């Protein structure tokens, strides 16, 4: 068979369901081979960056890789932002790029560049196929690396002449094995630390949202009552209705949840990634005893120097600790302070539930209503901007992977293509993406993709005519901000031109009803709301007020 046929068969054998991308002439053979596949669906996107974001969100939601595809040169460079985002946010992904003939790779030639070297810093592995016989091994290795904890992106480059070669090879059968587990004696050491603590707290990171890990974490917390702080990317690891949920950390400012760390005599991190919330922000004096439990050893950092490292499958590690609780009993803990902090944060979240402003809508009120309209398994996707900070603080989850926030590489423009992928993965769920007007315009062309696929999704734009997060940070640091303002299109005309349902909301009291109305319509909908970002600096001042030791309320 032809090499391009073989690579398709290998992808089928690996269970690949979707390839998102923009083809070019250098991967024409592959596209013709893919056209014959009955197992893999190709989604034509309007930009390679959109394809990469779609593959990223597919990977985050399913735990399995999808493929994003581009041709050589600009096709490959257009992919790289979304690929970097997926890699740093721990999403399994395959990246497939075309390349010119191997006969011209050694010299200056049209659109030729070293794609493999360019992708090396933003992938777990990047390689080119120079011999068609190696395709089964390359694809098997690529998928294995992409899925192995911590998951990430892998690049395969297929030169156009190699794609045409005749080859007599067959796909390798995928064989998957259990991950390694933490050593019993080291788990005993961790349990001793836990037994001797009085005010331990848990920081759940990205690795804790794997379903098996989240299940064991909840069992652990039900037994002990120890409070859990989640990073932006770990939302839903515990149900926010649970008494032990202490909400989210990561804003970079003191907030009610962070007092639980200040007052803790032991910090247990689960699946925690350094890129999520740097330890210098929660361990500034470098004096917190830490138990590190993760798939990988701890990053070396002066603010993060664990007493014990539990390295191995996180779900199994938690199961081992739960077994010890059963056999040796639950430690005698003092968690009344954590409960008080939880109550204070609950009051904070409900403060704007009954807002009925006109002209602009407060971020807190919109997120309160979004939470009310979405069910426990529905999915919210955040873009990057000021709205991301509000979502992190005010939107909380019942289930893992129901609020997806880019927080490693933090690329703008992810929410719309991400919502498209989510609608393909979970067509039975309500899907809402939230973007600022800046981020939304960065991949606006994918509105056509959403309509062509007739995706059931709602995109909510918080309109402020500026790069609001940059303005917020500059004003916080310098007392003023530079010129960050821009103009926007007529959103309703834009929605109509793409065949979307369009809504504009200027009153808080009708926002929830508008969201319900949008979900009642088949196909994609756009809701635009003027956001009151005067609340940004109010929040900064509010957080400043609680940097002093937080008293117990009467």
Descriptive account of the structure:
This protein is of the alpha/beta class. The chain has three domains: 3-164, Rossmann fold; 184-343, TPP-binding domain (Rossmann fold, 3-Layer(aba) Sandwich); 351-541, Thiamin diphosphate (ThDP)-binding fold, Pyr/PP domains (Rossmann fold, 3-Layer(aba) Sandwich), CATH 3.40.50.970. The chain has 21 helices and 18 strands. Strand 5, helix 6 (135-147) and strand 6 (153-159) form a beta-alpha-beta unit. The termini are far apart. The model is unreliable at 549-554 (pLDDT under 50).
Topology diagram in text:
Layout: H1 3-13, E1 18-21, H2 28-35, E2 41-44, H3 48-62, E3 66-70, H4 74-88, E4 93-99, H5 115-119, E5 125-128, H6 135-147, E6 153-159, H7 160-164, H8 184-196, E7 200-204, H9 211-224, E8 228-230, E9 245-248, H10 256-262, E10 266-270, E11 290-294, E12 308-311, H11 314-328, H12 336-350, H13 363-373, E13 379-382, H14 386-394, E14 403-404, H15 415-425, E15 431-436, H16 437-442, H17 446-452, E16 458-463, H18 468-478, H19 491-497, E17 501-504, H20 511-519, E18 525-530, H21 534-545
Parallel strand pairs: 1-2, 1-3, 3-4, 4-6, 5-6, 7-8, 7-10, 8-9, 10-11, 11-12, 13-14, 13-15, 15-16, 16-18, 17-18
Helix pairs in contact: 1-2, 1-6, 3-4, 3-15, 8-11, 9-11, 10-12, 13-14, 13-20
